[in-house]
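queue> pop job 88
queue> type: inverse folding (structure -> sequence)
queue> payload:
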């Protein structure tokens, strides 16, 4: 793994990072988090500059998720159900993501990056759910930036031990899911209080 990624980065550089992450977000079998962690490690070794590495990771992530959004916009759910199995996207996962959107809305676009299998289809479901591109971009792009920063930082922190990242990746995802539920609860509670306040005023 170390040698393969080292060769890949050495040969394709920042352009390779963009293409690999874009492909991984769209649905190609690419270990996105491990790739980002290795990029962080490469930054710590001076092989890549932090600004360029982060910029490439961010551009790759938002390129992939934007492509997915327009796939959903133009081709819709039938395309996802027909070609999803090729990318290991099952109908159960599609329905699970749709339920997440029904309950939590656009927050799924932000936190979905941290949930494998969800980030690959969240943008398509967002388009199918008629979420505007402006709102999609606000949440998806900010989520892509936080996701990129998180795993680059993990690679820098672990250094030569970056191959141990898998045990930390699961931990980070659990924290992300917990934060997702907490933020969703706060948003739901705030809306409920606001709704009741407006209803009381109307009386």
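queue> result:
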């Amino acid at each position: 793994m170390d040698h393969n990624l080292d060769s890949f980065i050495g040969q394709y550089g920042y352009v390779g990072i963009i293409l690999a992450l874009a492909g991984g977000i769209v649905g190609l079998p690419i270990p996105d988090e491990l790739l980002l962690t290795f990029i962080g490690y490469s930054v710590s070794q001076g092989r890549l500059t932090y600004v360029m590495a982060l910029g490439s990771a961010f551009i790759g992530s938002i390129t992939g998720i934007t492509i997915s959004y327009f796939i959903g916009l133009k081709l819709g759910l039938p395309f996802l159900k027909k070609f999803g199995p090729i990318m290991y996207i099952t109908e159960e996962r599609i329905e699970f993501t749709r339920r997440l959107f029904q309950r939590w809305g656009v927050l799924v676009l932000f936190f979905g990056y941290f949930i494998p299998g969800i980030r690959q289809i969240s943008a398509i479901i967002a388009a199918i759910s008629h979420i505007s591109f402006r709102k999609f971009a606000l949440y998806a792009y900010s989520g892509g930036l936080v996701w990129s920063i998180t795993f680059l930082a993990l690679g820098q922190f672990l250094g030569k031990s970056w191959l141990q990242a898998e045990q930390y990746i699961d931990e980070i995802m659990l924290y992300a899911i917990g934060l997702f539920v907490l933020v969703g609860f706060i948003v739901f509670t705030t809306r409920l209080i606001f709704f009741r306040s407006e209803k009381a005023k109307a009386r």
